[in-house]
Amino acid sequence: MTTARDLLIVAMQTAPDRPVEPGDLSLALAGAELIDLLENGSLTLDGDRIVPGLQVSTGDELLDQAAAALVRQDPYESAEDWLWRRGRGLSLTYLAGLEKDGVVTRSKGRWIPVATRRRELADSPARRHAEARRAADEPVLAALTTSLRMDDKRADDFENLTDEAVVTVLAAVGEAVTELESVRQRRTIEDAAFDNVWRGQ
Fold first, then answer.
1. pLDDT, tens digit, for every residue of 171-190?
2. pTM value?
């Protein structure tokens, strides 16, 4: 299992109480991919620039796709740019992958069309792995869940992490999620102002 898959499973478990915006989750999933690729030697960071290494098969289709998508010409892509580019719609991609692997199933209902059935986590080794990782408060997964506000910890608390490159990626995730939230709030205010004008208020 990859960090991105574990993160999505944890997000689905948390959703009833602390739902996560799909856009925020997509950014964090892209960050999780970077961290796993850092750890297997597929890339390094030069400051915040992603420097690709040798393409190493990870055994995970989506993580291999992420490695293949790295910009391999100088000037290299920044971690922040990667999050926005790779993260577009990534939560749906990972959800489809978990469904394909049987980790996520659709609720049963005789008269409910399959496409509209609610997705649920199956009892699977993948789910138990993600649960164990979260229960152990594994630093990378904990930092990602915090950046998505799945708990009440500070999003910039990386005291349990010693790898500077990993901290750089996690900081970029936190900043991107904050920026996306600001965009959403601005749009809400603009929409409300437009509605008031439309109603003549």
1. 999 999 999 998 888 776 66
2. 0.88
